[in-house]
Structures are given as C-alpha cells and as structure tokens.
C-alpha cells in the first residue's frame, strides 16, 4: 500500500463545484467558496494569487495552484487590481462595483465573463473534504502552492476546462474524476519539488528501510506490530529500523502506528454506525476500552465524544 494512495482514498471529488472565468485586463476574481481544498489553472494568460499570510504567487499558462482552507483569496492580472467578481459557495458569481456591465453567466454553463474571446481564462474546481484521513493530507500542504506546467504530466487541467461547459449525461461524474486526477498529479509533482518540504511519510516512500516499514503498517494496521517484527520483515536490526524510521518519518514506528490507527478510527466513528468495540478491533485494538484509552490520550476526547461532536 502506497501511503499517498491511502490518504487519497478518502479524498475524492463528489459533486465538485467548477467554474471557468474568461476575462479581459484589468481583471481579478475574489474567491470566497470556503472550500477546504481547491485547484485552479490558467488556461490562457498569466495571473497573480494574493492571500493573507503569504507572498503573492504568479501563475503562468498551464500552471496548477492548490488552495487549502476556507480563507478568501484573489486571482487577478495584477496584485493591485481590485476584484470585479466574487465567487461564493455554490458557484454563485456576484458582480462587484466596477465590474463591466456585461459580466454574466451568458457565456455558458459554469462560465463567467464578458466575452468568449477574453485574453485570460482561469478554470477551477473545489472539493468538500471530510474525514480525518483526508485532513491528514490537507494538513501536509501550505495555504497556497503552485506547480509549473512543465512539472505536471499531461494536460489534465486543459481537459477539465474543455469539459466544464459541456452538459452531457454523467457530466458531473466526469468532472469529478478529472478533478481527482488533477489533484493526484499535482500533489505528486509538488511533493517532488525541493521547496515543498514534503512530509516525512512521503519522503520515506523511497527509503528502503522506513518506506518498507511504512508500507507494512498501512497494508495491515490492525496487525499486532512490534518493532522487532517490523525490523525482521524489512531485514534490518531493531535499532537500525527505529533510528532510520524516526529520522525520515519524524516519529517512532509505534507512535506513527498509533496515530494512524486513531485517524482510521476517527473516520469510522464519523462515517459508520459501527460500535466502538467493532471499530477497535478493525483498527488493531483488543477491545473498546483499549481504543478509548488510546483515543483519549491522542485526541483529548473519547471515541463516543468524537462521534457526538462529528454528528
């Protein structure tokens, strides 16, 4: 089991929200969709991204940006251009003071702007991320990241842009799957860049010792793992495994396993009606009491309290 695959399993676009903006300078979009995860690309033209707490970032044609968290941000032709359109939750487009009078939805399905031949075209899609496994991935990302077009395999976002304006049977599912693919290839390209400061669990996947142990833990988290057995399976001494795993991943093997089991349990408590006893055994604890003790230590609340809060 690839660790990134494991985290992406819980991050799938369902009824994703898409829009295509076709604009002329000076232009700027204020995005207030409040989505926990969003992607955007410049199909035509260049753009600047501004958001509180970060330095402005430039997007060239074909570059892909990922945004995390609900904080508003602006995409425009210049950092000084005042927004003319505001995108609200539910793909609602609100003209702002100073917007050209012909900015409307008349360009087609999910499409905003003044005229189809506009010099700037920005396509975007958003996720509604739910669950602790998905959040583990989101937490590994900065507020905004931009991956150059040259680093992304294939014109994935171009395909999304061409699909946004279609109205065909199953179109939402087609867009959702394209958005999933765009997220995967963009994240993979981002984590491979030196400036990404990729999380330890990603860096470890190419390490023969730490990566081997990680894959075992993710393939069967309920197994009664111990450092001696992990070391034996990987083919190194206990001391070598503990030292290498901690250095690369950032925490000891058994600490990582505990946190991963609690993450899985938290998702099951949120998404199923299974008893705490059943969930405990599914994630590797002998009984509900053992899971409750570990859950309280890691999360500061009981499994029942977490379920109640999630509901």
Order of strands across the biggest sheet? 10-1-11-3-6-12
What can be said about the biggest beta sheet?
6 strands, mixed
Q: What average pLDDT do the residues reach?
A: 87
User: Could you give the order of the helices and strands?
Assistant: HEEEEEEEEEEEHEHHHHHHHHHH
**Secondary-structure content class:** alpha+beta
Q: Proportion of β residues?
A: 15-25%
Total strands: 12
End-to-end Cα distance: 30 Å
In terms of per-residue confidence, which ranges show pLDDT below 50 for 5 or more consecutive residues?
none
Gross morphology: elongated
**SS element count, helices:** 12
**Radius of gyration over all CA atoms, rounded:** 22 Å
Helical residue percent? 40-55%
Describe this structure in words.
The protein is of the alpha+beta class and 311 residues long. It has twelve helices and twelve strands. A six-stranded mixed beta sheet has the order 10-1-11-3-6-12, with helices on one face. Strand 4 and strand 5 form a beta hairpin. It starts with a helix and ends with a helix. The mean pLDDT is 87.
